[in-house]
Amino acid sequence: MTDARSLVETLNARYVAAIDDDRLEEWPTFFTDPCRYEIIPAENVEQNLPLGVFFADSRAMLNDRVQSLRRANIYESQRYRHVVSSILIVGEEQNLVRAEANFLVVRIMLDGDMRLFMSGRYRDVVDTSGATPLFREKRVVFDNRRIDTLLALPV
Amino acid sequence: MTDARSLVETLNARYVAAIDDDRLEEWPTFFTDPCRYEIIPAENVEQNLPLGVFFADSRAMLNDRVQSLRRANIYESQRYRHVVSSILIVGEEQNLVRAEANFLVVRIMLDGDMRLFMSGRYRDVVDTSGATPLFREKRVVFDNRRIDTLLALPV
Amino acid sequence: MTDARSLVETLNARYVAAIDDDRLEEWPTFFTDPCRYEIIPAENVEQNLPLGVFFADSRAMLNDRVQSLRRANIYESQRYRHVVSSILIVGEEQNLVRAEANFLVVRIMLDGDMRLFMSGRYRDVVDTSGATPLFREKRVVFDNRRIDTLLALPV
Lengths: 155, 155, 155
Fold this sequence. Notes:
3 copies of one chain form a homotrimer. Chain A has 155 residues and is of the alpha+beta class. Chain A contains 4 helices and 6 strands; from the N terminus they run αβαβααββββ. Chain A has a 6-stranded mixed sheet. Chains A and B meet through strand 3, strand 4 and strand 5 of A and helix 1, strand 3, strand 4 and strand 5 of B.
């Protein structure tokens, strides 16, 4: 249990550091290919509604998203700061670890305004077969229903 | 030290996941019977005032609280998201581990409003004698003095 | 990796507990002497501007700061609550561990007002040669540009 949690903790720490440091081009490299990445409201998960606000199932799709963000220059005007806690290993089979964790994202705008932007739970499936663990699935289940139109950065 | 912290970390992760996921009926099962659970403002702790805003010393009392919450349907209108960090083992004796940790609670309302609701420190005594560690004591020492009247959910 | 992270996690947990509990006099004892402690905005780090909002390179300077804070009685009117997460070991050499971690600070005012005060990243160099690990460097790189004039407490 401890080793799996330590591994997931480090993977998530590297993952959020890349996003918070504006190293967006590294973001797709944290995933297997194919993969599953989605951002979905908690109420949809509860009601078994499959639709989220973002979905990707390959590195190519994740790379596309990064290119769009770079073109739109959105990252110039805002930054994120992630806090991840309470990592829980919910399953282990062969080279796959299922883990969950709570997260908060603080958004910092260019004018210095800082606010709590999103809270929720990561539901991850981590592939540990390679030299570096990778996300085979990362479902970002968020609590707050009102989606900010600026929601564009990876979470 | 590491093993005890890992154990307390996992226990708190399971505990907050149960609350945040609305599995309130599981809440009392995280405690020994008898137990001590209380929510108390930091200033009362500093001034040695024993009164908090909630106190229970048995699973029956915790179960009563859950039943009240279910009847009042409060959980329909709000959710919590806990963040727990900086777990510190402050004592170990036989089958008891004393631990402290910082926490934040974000509250998400039905209309999507999300805000920082409470910050504070868990002061836990964990009984490790059984198959699953349990809270013998959980003192929720919170920082913010203004108590929201909706304070009703477990923290 | 796990051992170094556990060590840094415990050091930071003790460090923030001392600050949050108003045991400011202990704050300098978490550092080597000489040391490097600074609070610096993220944009200055990115632009290689060396100037931060606070700098100290010895325990004497840190002690001076504590004395000033005590004289000004600032700590009577506010408290902090730190959350530290996603600790990442970025280097290890002999008795030095380089580590980074995300943090949030919530500030609680005397009147009960509580708000998100600062977010950012610790960039630490930890000296592990002695009986107790100490910060040889602690750089507090914060995200929010607008500095509150009450910024005075250790972070």
